[in-house]
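Researcher: Here's a chain I'd like modeled. Treat it as a single chain, no partners, no ligands.
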Amino acid sequence: MLCELHEGDRSWFHNSLNAGQYLAAVHCGTLPQPFRRDDHTVSRGYAVGFGHWFFFDAIEPAIAFGRAARMSLDCHGYGVYEAAHEVMFCRHHGTDERVLLVTGDNLDRRDDEVELLTRFVQGVREHPWSAHWHAPRELAPASTTVAP
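Model: Modeled as a single isolated chain. Structure tokens:
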């Protein structure tokens, strides 16, 4: 049970746990491998922290989300990190418990950020009605206008 493994309400960088309803968000040296069982799953992806923690399966929406948040006057900083999202059913509490495991250095504001943002926009253009991230089939050259 995750409540026995992690100190509740513990959050790296002191970001709120409310948005993801996390038991904890902890920094770790090595992320666990993806895992799926009826009562326990681990998904790998990216965490964005800027007062709250948010998890994304892909780096493109994570970078876009963090960058957009930082443009708000209410956001004083942000970070994008490799992460694992772990959910396990707790027999003691009778509910799923969620933990965000975060590792590594900040992945935002790097030289390839514009490429990642371009891929994000292209994916949205190809799947405008989807609430989920879909990688673009083929990235159009920067000089080409892609019709919506």
